[in-house]
Amino acid sequence: MTPSEKSRPAWGGVPLTRRRMVLGMAAVGGFLAVDLGAVAWAGGWIGAAHRLIPDDFIKAFVWVNGKQMGFRKNHAKGAVVTGYFDSNGNGRELSSAAVFQSGRTPVVGRFSLAGGNAHAADAAATARGLGLAFEFPGGSQWRTAMLNLPVFPDNSPQGFYDRLLASKPSPDTGKPDPKAMAAFLAAHPETAKAMKIIGQNPPSPGFADSTFRGLNTFYFVNESGTRTPVRWSLVPVNPPAPRASSGPNALFDAVIRQIRSGPLQWRLMLTVAGPSDPLDDATLPWPDDRRSIDAGMLTLTSIETERSGNARDINFDPLVLPPGIERSDDPLLSPRSAVYAASYRVRARESNSSPAVVVDQVTP
Amino acid sequence: MSAEIDDTTATMPPPQKFTALSRMFHWLTAILIFAALLIGFTMVNWTAGYATLRLVHMSIGVLVLVVVVLRIVNRLRHHPPAWPSTIGRREGKAIIWLERALYALILAQPLVGWAMVSATGKPIPVFGGLPLPRIAPFNIDVYSVLRETHSVLAYLLVVVIAAHVSLVLAHSSMLGDGMLRRMTFQFRPSAK
User: Residue of A133, A139, A167, A275 with fewest CB within 10 Å of its CB?
Assistant: First the structure.
């Protein structure tokens, strides 16, 4: 052996010539570039600058509301309810879901107010939410997150995101910057139109007498396989609260007092789309004369403070659907599912803070 | 002299292949794991595709779990063929640990994913409807630990797979010891 061969690096007894080194680097380097490049692209580290990812929504909520440790990033303020749904069997015409068979299904849920500030004062104009999980924690659950609005303000994730940013309260006035909101509405005429409809339907005095709507369209599939586009709503049969409550939790205090004096009830209405009704735009209402089926009665029997293990820890993901209900092409649905999941992951990681609504502290 | 050294490849005995079943399992696992990883990384960063990809991801996870259990049984019943003579003692030890880490990760990852969804109290519909039983209690703290673990294991899988493939490619391209050929299928009729 010549001295030059002796000093050559070797691996496994094979001397590494320049040719072998180049071959090796090409093979390994080529593979790693494709492999890690694919992972980086999939993970959004490259090429994702132009699209909204779930984390953008979480960051936007934090930017608007500050850190809200342990709370939902939206609808942060809430209280947990339990009850049941008595189906009258009418819904079977549209859906084969077990919940529409005649009989009783247990329900857990949560009243909430829109917005990411868990300690915001109750206000009549704030959108009220009711999240429900039918048959929790069974294998054919139905979860829905509803609002007391006639239509949803946005018809795209971008619209929701832009409205969220425009709604940040100015530190001086405590109200959104009118210029930012005006610019947003000019760029989003669909929201301007939806806001007009929302303005024409003023909210009821409280949670108990609110009509809650699912707003997005879903397909109901019956036993013979017929798919029908449906929007659902809960129509209250409860009278308004006998006396007004006051203070920062006025709306929650009122509904707590009402449930204490007796169960609260809503009729579940399934509204069937007309032939030309929009199925993928939650900002557009359907005409009032659409056929509605009364599917049964929701009864809420108790209300409690959010705590570990109750509906505080349920993500009211609108795409948790039982066989017999399917998603539509509404572009809000998958992003809602994705962003709710991101919010759930973040708040699960955070330490918990005390909720604003403490049921035991509400005087009779 | 140098020509002789360069011809080492020709003098090495042809590598002994894994059994056809082992090779089939290997490539099936490779396809499933690449798909599950790429879909997993994509879905959490793509709002419009999330709902559909999540269902696909969970179904692939179930397939991975089934295949890895079959592979472990197969691995315990069949000793793999001998390594090429180019693998020394220390490298051999590293390869053994790499193989064990891969098996452990591929087994743990779908189980962690399944338990993580179980802990959220959500149903786990796979293959278009069939709900899996829940294997963890409804508990947000349990979920949180499992959710973060699922991400850590995903990154570890990326690293370990990159090491595994790089090692085989380096051996085959630099040393010409046919290490990759132990796992490939012969699509041309054998010269025998």
Answer: A275
Cite the active site residues of A. Answer: 75
User: Chain A closest CA to B123's CA: distance in Å?
Assistant: 5
Residue in this structure with the two tokens 């490779």, named with its chain if needed: B30
Cβ of A28 within 8 Å of Cβ of B123? The answer is no
User: How many angstroms separate the CA atoms of A183 and B173, rounded?
Assistant: 60
Residues of A whose CB is below 8 A from B169:
24, 27-28, 31
User: Running DSSP on this structure, what letter comes out for residue B47?
Assistant: T
ipTM: 0.93
Domain B17-182: assigned CATH number:
1.20.950.20
CATH, domain range A56-361: 2.40.180.10
Q: Would you state the pLDDT for residue A293?
A: 98
How many CA atoms lie less than 13 Å away from A36 in the CB half-sphere?
Answer: 13
CB–CB of A31 and B165 under 8 A?
yes
What is the crossing angle of helices A189-200 and A157-166, to 10°? 70
Residue of A nearest to B42 (CA): A42
Residues of chain B with pLDDT under 50: 1-10, 191-192
What is the separation of C-alpha A192 from the centre of its chain, rounded to a whole number of angstroms? Answer: 22
Chain A neighbors of B123, CB-CB under 8 A:
138-141, 320
Q: Where are the domains of chain B?
A: 17-182
Give yes or no for B175 touching A (CB within 8 A).
Answer: yes
Report, in angstroms and rounded to the nearest whole number, the Rg of chain B calculated over CA atoms.
Answer: 20
Alpha helices in A1-153 (DSSP H): 3-6, 18-42, 54-65
Q: Mean pLDDT in each 10-residue stretch from start to end of chain A (364 residues)?
A: 60 87 94 95 83 95 95 98 98 98 98 97 96 95 98 98 94 89 97 98 96 98 98 94 87 96 97 97 97 98 97 98 97 98 98 94 92
* Inter-residue long-range contacts of B1-7, CB under 8 Å, 24+ positions, other chains counted: B1/A1, B1/A2, B1/A5, B2/A5, B2/A17, B5/A5, B5/A15, B5/A17, B6/A17, B6/A19
CA atoms within 13 A on the CB side of B137: 6
